[in-house]
Amino acid sequence: MASSSSSPIWKYDVFLSFRGEDTRKNIVSHLHKQLVDKGVVTFKDDKKLELGDSISEEISRAIQNSTYALVILSENYASSSWCLDELRMVMDLHLKNKIKVVPIFYGVDPSHVRHQTGSFTFDKYQDSKMPNKVTTWREALTQIASLAGKDFETCEDEASMIEEIVKDISKKLLIMQPVDFSDIVGMNAHMERLSPLLSMDSENEVRMIGIWGMGGIGKTTIAKCLFDQFSQGFPARCFLENVSKIYRKGGVSSLAEKFLSTTLGLSKKKMKGSGVKLGPQEIKARFGCRKVFVVLDNVDDMRQMHAFAQESSWFGPGSRIIITTRDKGLLNTYGVRTVYEVKCMDNDAALQLFNQLAFKGALPPSELYEKLSIRASWLAQGLPVAIEAYGLFFRRMTSLKEWDDALCRFIEAPDESVMEILKISYDGLEETDKNVFLHVACLFNGEPLRRATTLLDDGVLQGCLGLKILAEKSLIEITASGYIKMHNLVDQTARAIVNQESMQRRHGRGVLWNPYEIYELLKRNTTSEPTNCMALHMCDMVYALHLGGYTAYHDTLKFLKIYKHSNHIKSKLLFSGDDTNLLSSRLRLLHWDAFPLTTFPCRFQPQDLVEIILHRSNLTSFWKETVGMPNLRRLDLSDSENLEQLPDLSMAVNLEELITQGCKRLKKIPESISYLTRLTTLDVSYCEELASYITIRELNRSGRQIALYFSGKEVETRSIANLSIGGNIHIQMFWLDGNVDHLSFTTEQQGPDKLTKKEKQQAPGELTKREQQQEPRKKTILCGFGSLMRKGRKVKATSEFLDHEWMMQRDQLAPDNQQALEFSTRTRQALQFLPEFHGQESVKKAQGKSQPTSKFHGFTSVDISRFRYSSDGASFLCFSLSMFPCVKELILINLNIKVIPDDVCGLKFLEKLDWSGNDFETLPETMNQLPRLKYASFRNCCRLKALPALVQLETIKLSGCINLQSLLELSYAEQDCGRFQWLELWVDGCKSIRSILDQLRHFIKLSYLDLSSHEFEKLPSSIEVLSSLRTLCLNKCKKLKSIEGLPLCLKSLYAHGCEILETVSLPLNHSVKHLDLSHCFGLKRDEHLIAQFLNEGENEEESLGFAFFPGTEVPSYFDHIDKGKSLTIDLPQIWPSPKLLGFDACVVIACERPFDIQFSPFSYDWDWGYERYFCLYLKPDFHSTDPSTEDEEEVVKSDHLLIIRGLKNFSNQINKLGIKSDLQFSEELKSPSAKLQSCGIRLIWEVGQADKSIEGEELPLSLEHLYAHGSNSLENDSFSPNHSIKYPLPPPESRRTQESNEYDFT
User: Fold this and answer.
1) Pick the CATH number of 12-176 from 2.120.10.30, 3.90.79.10, 3.10.180.10, 3.40.50.10140
2) pLDDT tens digit string along 996-1008?
3) Domain at 945-1101: CATH code
4) Polar residues bias located where (predicted)?
């Protein structure tokens, strides 16, 4: 903690000035005691004899170092020259605003003091030899008598007067001396949140506040700041640091002794001599009526709490007890109801603290160091103790290479001191809970709480209880949505613990997830090393491993997870036979990606299996016979392309999830799932041979029923909450009707209430205060079918209602609405397009029905789609969306919907919608009442003509809306440009928009803009005012001839296929890092454009830039050129050597036949090999053209140049630099006939800006290129006649001017 440098530092709060013989044994003694009890630091001269003619040096210093002076003016005060000297000094300081003075007139008349009459006459000093002093004394008495103070004669009694004085002084001191937390990052925010919890104005209660959080998060620091800020006004106060450590060393008596000695201000010697009993009862006796401020830091045992008090009544009213702990359960047990949870620092605060430590309060010395500091602070994940450790560690690093090496170290494992702090919580766990912790770190970090609880509840681990304890002890966090979150450093600590325990217990390891150790264990194929949990990431395996066959052994393996990235096609675990020891009969979790067996061995019949996850397996079938799996909850066989049939699941009575997504050969779903009453998730999408037909209906009182027809057989289920299915799907709901290809919906599920964070959540349909204010005052039109309904009136289900497959529950209360429910205008429009439902009832019958309000409509996402759009496709009926009040994501694609109902405004939780491929012409104006909507896609809505004012959106996609005429209404066009929040806008192919370029000025926050396939000839000037624009797409603008006026902030420009584009002008100091001008065959002065891209942009350290142009050979700009796809050059060995900043490179892609080549942002991948080699992996988009329509010249035009600018902080030790490139093709392109023909490179060297001249004689003759861009102070350049420099620095007069874009080297 640091105080402001402008504020004085006082040693004493109050200085007491008094006449000893008058007041020492009465008012002064009482006043002094009250001040001390209130925590006011008070100076009182205890000497009984006033010796000498002047005040002592000690008194003088005390006056100067005090905030307040309380002057007790008694009958004999003026008879003491000592007192008068004190008063003169006090008043001198008071006039200089260096001390505040409060006079107390104790038995004297203030007028006597003012006029020096009565007992304040100066008769004694008439013949004094010190006339100057007498004059100053008189002035001091006159001045103090005019100040506001306390007159004993006007007070009720002495006690009340003292109480009032002390209370007033204490309050003013708190206001005057605020604690400055400005040097402690984030502390002010903690104080603001904690201050109302302390409720300091409440004097009638004892308030206990718990400060809870993980180890190293700053609980003690926060408590110290609280103590410094609030404890001064308490008569008794105590900060007891590290209670757990004191308790471990000396027990309860040691804690009590420490507390009493600190609070009472007694030394241990005095404590023993006073005969004070050292126990809780003594604390109760001494503090039961006393107001105290106590901080108990780092409490980890209930006995430590009981050492101070078994209940809050042991302390006096107004007391505040602060307890810091890692264990929330301890606070709950002790009855602490107010708990402040300390969270990790956010990224900005973490970076600020790191820089404060790593750079000693200064800023990073360069942009490169700034980027490295961001990476380093991110490794700490907001944990203050780790940020502090890393910051101090990096302070010692003196080079960029040392920084890089240190970062690599901390990525692998945290700092030892940080790990020791985090390990304390682990060491305090019971043995069972330690096992749960290691299993969670190994398997369940980021997983749903419900899943982890189910798998870990095996009778031994007691997962539910164990997870609760881990959450209370801050080792894990349970999010509000029911997921387990473990801090990254805690996860790394768990790995270190596992590795350490593996070394100590070689033959009895509980958890294994180190790839090397697992590899060695499996290689031995031993039977004497029992393991409970194994997690192997196959991508981390160096070599493939052939597993031996099954041999009887200690069958202890319960959790098996073997996984890999999906793009790693081949599994590195291979079977020598048809069985393995890994298939333990005691398995609860079997997760094996790319499982190599085609079927399970007959002996493998695990009764305890809870989850089977076999993504991309080689299975063709499961067991041939019905296998009893009563505990199975999840069966996930996604992308098992050879799987043809599933087992009989009738015995899997607890199955909750069945997932066969992408099982292309699966022909049948077992009918037994009809009897699985707990099945809530079913995903059978993209199963190409699974002929399916589906209807959805709601039964009377019994909830939803889904009828699935697979290969002509009906499978019914009523418990599905999450469904994904493809095929011939017929949806027949009351408000939705039609045929689709894909249907999916999901419902959020949370973990047990006792474990999830109890955050206040908005109930479905409940509006926030802000949303209520935004609601229009006009009455909302209820869209739907209905008749006159009164409050409390019941709607009876008639026989015609019962016939329909979506109906209200019988005797359901109708909505409260006094007006007749009528068709809205938009609903009438919908009925005009289709006079009858696709289902059984006519529209006439439907008009008498009421809106469904069934509870099952708690879907958070709904996806109803057809795979292709057809302009003459049957329209999907959508009369209302009111059945989805909780939906966050609503996808209705290619359904030919003609009208969107107005009641879409009721979807208050909607965040994302995709209504691409529909036939509506307008959208409801009520959509601007969706406060959470941020993303909307209306791609290929070919009939859409206008948009409502969707100002709240951040992303809007309108690609292919060929009839859209305007982006905003005329009324909004005249309003403030800043209203719209749009960040990303796609209007490619929207050629009917009138004055689109003028409308763009209203979207000033745009960072992404796609204007592809428009017909303007030059870039509009409105683009330049988009000051946040980062990406601009102009692909296939066939009439575009020139591009200029680009904003300086632009990072990416795509202008692929602009065939008559002639000129592109990049602004000076441009920021473009990605430039795609592929198939722009009309471009002129290519080399000039290359020079613009490379030499006129802002050069950021450690950055890469890519540009793509038509071309057939490497330009002469590059001084090292070679055939093929790689090139290596030797660096000059000179001393002192210039610093290598980076390189420019060129790669020629030659095509043997016509191609349409396009470089998207995902066309590049790269890495540095041993710092010397830049390895580039290219995967552009190749599209073959029709050979019959192309002439011979088109083949040449398909050749292109890739230009690269690479800047890097190279070490001085490298002696070679090379580029290696590789061209990759997608699997769909069978015969690409394209290759990397040649490449070139040019090195960039640093020349210091302080250099005034370049003398050729000082440069090595072997130096071929000198780059001095930005060295504006150069005055001379002369080179030896024998120099090898090909491109010397251009003279100043050749620099680019505003009038010309050319360089003159003549």
Assistant:
1) 3.40.50.10140
2) 777 887 888 999 9
3) 3.80.10.10
4) 1274-1283
